[in-house]
Amino acid sequence: MTNVEINKQARLSQHFTLAEMCKTSAKTADGNIPSHVHIENLKRLCGWLEMLRDEWNRRYGEGDDPIIINSGYRSEAVNKTVGGAKGSNHLTGCAADIRVAGMEQALRYAVILLDISDESREDFDELLLERSSRGTYWLHFAVRPPSQENRRKVAFLRA
Fold first, then answer.
1. pLDDT tier for residue 2 given thresholds of 50, 70 and 90
2. What is the pLDDT of residue 30?
3. Residue 67 DSSP one-character state
4. Where are the beta strands (DSSP E) in the chain?
5. Cα–Cα distance measured from residue 49 to residue 99, given in angstroms and rounded to the nearest whole number
6. Distance separating alpha carbons of residues 95 and 74, to the nearest angstrom
7. What order of strands is seen across the sheet that includes strand 137-142?
């Protein structure tokens, strides 16, 4: 297998880098390299994350609170290693798992994303409040390219 180098410090948006949108705890992280199409999808997703960050800080934050990403793009190998769904939006760079301090912050983030969708009249694909068996919460958010149908799926899931 040929090693491919990408500029992981490249900015996808004002506050998000390629490195943070590709980070993973999986042992196969070296192969977690997105294609140009995946990077375009990540840029679109980061546009939404920037709006979330701005609105969170306007409503509740200290002025410059970051949005922290647990997982963004995943290669097939990484997705399999972490137990991701077979057709996961992470595989195409269309999804991010957002770290939250608890259920209240997850709900507030979700409300902001729903408001953004309603106000912009743009749909998202998935907005999932997720909880691990250990009781940690995160928010899974996905938005597909305009050429694909966004389902506006909203759910609470427990791993």
1. very low
2. 65
3. P
4. 69-71, 95-99, 126-131, 137-142, 153-158
5. 12
6. 9
7. 69-71, 95-99, 137-142, 126-131, 153-158
Instruction: Decide: 137 and 126 in contact? Cβ < 8 Å.
Output: no
Q: What is the mean pLDDT of residues 70-75?
A: 95
The pTM for the full model equals 0.91
Supply φ then ψ for residue 43, to 5 degrees.
-60, -45
Cα separation, 3 vs 148, in Å, equals: 31
Please count the residues of the chain.
159
Name 154's bridge partners: 127
Helix pair angle (36-59, 103-120), 10° resolution:
110
3-class secondary structure, 105:
helix
Q: How far apart are CA 156 and CA 139, in angstroms?
A: 9
